[in-house]
Amino acid sequence: MRISYEWLGSMVDLPDDPKVLYTELIRTGTEVETIERVGADLEHVVVGQVLSKKPHPDSDHMWLCQVSVGDKNVDENGDPAPLQIVCGAQNFNEGDKIVVAMIGAVLPGDLKIKKSKLRGVESCGMNCSERELGLGGDHSGIMILPEDAPVGMPFTDYRGTSDTVLDCEITPNRPDCLSYVGMATEVGAVLDEDTHIELPAIQREEGPKSADLVDVKIADTSLCSRYVARVVRGVKIGPSPEWLARRVIAAGSRPINNVVDVTNYVMYLTGQPLHAFDLGKLSERDGRRHIVVRAAREGEQLTTLDGQQRTLTSDMAVITDDGERAVALAGVMGGLNSEIDDTTVDVLLESACFDKSHISRTSRNLNLMSEASIRFERQVDAANCEEVADIAAALFESCCGATVCRGRVDEYPVPVKAVRIALRGERVRSMCGAPITNDKISHLLERLGCAVVAQKGGNDFEVVAPTSRPDLTREADLIEEVLRLWGMDRVEPTLPAAKNHHGGLTVDQQRTQLIGRTLRACGLSETFTYCFAEDGDLERANISETGRGVPVRIKNPLLANNSEMRRSILPGLLRSVAYNLDHGVPNVALYEQGRVFFGHEKRTLPDEPRYVAGVLCGAWGLDGWNERHQPLDFFDAKGVVERLLAALRITKVRFKVADASEYPWLQPGRAAEVYAGGELLGWVGNVHPTSLANFGIDEDVVAFELSEAHLLRLAARELPYQDVPTLPAITHDLAIVVDEDVTCEMLTQRITSAGGKLLESARLFDVYRDPVRVGLGKKSMAFQLTYRANDHTLTSEEVERAHEKLVKKVCRSTGGEVRG
């Protein structure tokens, strides 16, 4: 919201230095992004006087002018000298005072004024129109100033066009601050100043009643709670008065004509969006126009004011001509078929309140954001619609020469009720930790527009919140407002009372942090993706829905395509991988700890288990002159998972080949389930190329996803103590030829079982295949076996006996044979 210091200052007394207000707004919770000096960019724009006006020697419509700008231009001797300017306007004469942009000026629209030649004649500036100065839409001729305008004076000083604009970031729960009236109330409360807001009033109503010319019907009250219509006749379309154009510009809009500018001005002033229909373009029946607010029909077409044809859905609201032809997309944008143009004489003025959730979905689904939709989706004050319609009608009367018809049409099927809230003074002081008196509490709330009535005893209050503040619904909201205005910085810091206990993290919290530390130590970076997911995310990733419940749908999504809560962390991580690859980052190693949401058909609340997931793509680092990194593969991800489980001291871990039918998002033969003590923890594997292609990834990606609840439950606080070995070990290498279907896990289990107490470890260090030397369908797997006794030094005879026994058992159980 752009706040003009001049405009706001006409409603409430402001400090001379805008930085003081800037500081106070930030202190009380309104973020101010920038302070902008409007009019400062009109440097080198001054008041000039036309000394001579002669026809251009090579043009039948251009003039060669000598323009005095006082002491702003000098000749070679330093004496004042006029500027030679070539001008194509026809509405000026010699002696007129005009606005001159000299060389070096930069006009709105980034128009830089330079010395130039027009039809062979040198021109050293430009005579300006209102439009070129950003003061209005009139481009028919240059701007003529009064005779007493001082020649040479900077134009910003002469017209007072310089202003300070504060660009405020208004939070979604404060729709009242999207208006100057609301901001004046807020600033008055912050600065403890009275407001003096003067609103335009209708001078005279005459002619037929609005109700005799227009009929309004709201077909669906869930879409529209109030609709006020007024009729003004005899509108004269033209440029807006300078004060109106200036304020519209300061608020961030471009002046168009007096009708459009009035509706924009009133919207900025009150926060209530308006729309003006050309009454003559609406069909007439029984002597009246019939406005019907209804839901759009599925597939209904409407060409909006921006010239785009929109295809509507049944979730959208439209304003229709007698219930049939849509003439506006309610709360978002008007239709081209009822647009105000130069032929408009009579205007139907709309001041309505539409449902915020429908407006929000409409603007996002159509990708059509407007100043009106921004305000409607934050909630407009329905109680204010009638007053706003009168304000707009008064401005049509004064700025457009219109006649205001008597009365108004007001359909109000769902009246808004002011919220009454009980407030306890002691509760305020207890929650704030500050000695705020009851009188101060009452005073601060009244500054915000609340009606405060002290209850018997004077320590409790009944507060009636203004209807323009939908965020005030409970006692805690009022307490927050009191503390915000009183000053959070004034609260003395104190330690909370705590008896017989000390603070600290729980065991699960410590282990959760350990998971993150371990993954970061493995080279992964933590990331956070949205808990919102696109509809069909699991299908896009080819992830099975088995065990993941039903989707949890979002009634009012922030983005139209994020319509449900995620059921897997993997799709979000894959989008992060795609984003990094698209932006030239070849090596990606990310992990995330977060919740997923499994809904149920017959239960209100979903399950919200926590998972930890990671993705690896590329290599561990960039290649250098002396180092080449291998691409990350399945075993890198498996190693990360093993390191994580070891850090949590989870024992009896094993990896089982994943069934391709149960894990369609993983490559067959490159995926495994992760077990600990017979309990499934999750999976690890290469993501299937089809899944990657659906996310726009053409590089290999390895991923894992583990249940955090299972990890925390199986994690051990400590392991049994083992003495550091003091006796020597003896190692033997064993190369055994087995069938291809014998896995390393199977062979390791057989070796460990047959090794007895003397076998300390078995480590695979080689796999060899050769159809001639090893045999077709065979492979040789070589293990390093370590033997050690804890109570004595082993002899070679002991080790030989144990080794021979191990070899016989393993060969017999696997059908293998020792490779010679």
UniProtKB/TrEMBL annotation:
Keyword field: Aminoacyl-tRNA synthetase, ATP-binding, Cytoplasm, Ligase, Magnesium, Metal-binding, Nucleotide-binding, Protein biosynthesis, RNA-binding, tRNA-binding
Residues the record lists as binding Mg(2+): D471, D477, E480, E481
GO MF terms, alphabetically ordered: ATP binding; magnesium ion binding; phenylalanine-tRNA ligase activity; tRNA binding
CDD domains: PheRS_beta_core, tRNA_bind_bactPheRS
Cellular component GO terms held in the UniProt record: phenylalanine-tRNA ligase complex
Keyword set includes Metal-binding: yes
UniProt EC number: 6.1.1.20
Start and end residues of each FDX-ACB domain: 725-819
Span of domain B5: 416-493
Family: Belongs to the phenylalanyl-tRNA synthetase beta subunit family. Type 1 subfamily.
NCBIfam families registered for this protein in UniProt: pheT_bact, YtpR
Protein's recorded name: Phenylalanine--tRNA ligase beta subunit
Source species of the chain: Parolsenella catena
The organism's taxonomic lineage, starting at the top: Bacteria, Bacillati, Actinomycetota, Coriobacteriia, Coriobacteriales
Gene name in the database record: pheT
